[in-house]
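Example record for the data management plan.
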Amino acid sequence: MKQRRSITDKRKSSEKKQDYKELCYRHSDIARDMSVYSPDAVRAERLKEVLQSVHEANKRSPLIVEGRRDAEALRALGLTGEILTLHSGKAIYDFCEDISERYDRIILLMDWDDKGDKLFGMLGENLRGHWEEFSPFRDIIRVLCQKDIKDIEGIPGLLEKLAGTKVVLTGETDEPGN
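Corresponding structural encoding:
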């Protein structure tokens, strides 16, 4: 037969859990002070590095995203280069013709949901030779965002959640803390 735990035993167990939580919080504070990062912090740092590379490339080449909110999210992160939205009222073929006439190189940064994958495939086919240099950006961002988000507009929120603070990119890549 199962023995019933007394209120005293339950209280002691609860106190042990509380002590353990406090120990974990103190450990995380100490780790932060010693520059030991959690997996989320490491992931945030890697995502920030990739976005910093996108920022640098965007200074020279326009970036194409699906919609207005994607563009606003990248602006909120600090991207200052030209950002074009696919959903601007043109047919995809006409959009691609216009882009290929105006630019030698572009950065494709579509969402990684089903719709984004289809659009990425169509744009990639129609803009062959213009975007391949920057193709790793989308793939790496997709991996770093894992299953948390499936769109560009969610990146600022994810970064804030992972890093514990709002993240804004700068033009300087070798400064600590950027």
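Summary line stored alongside the record: The longest strand covers residues 63-65.
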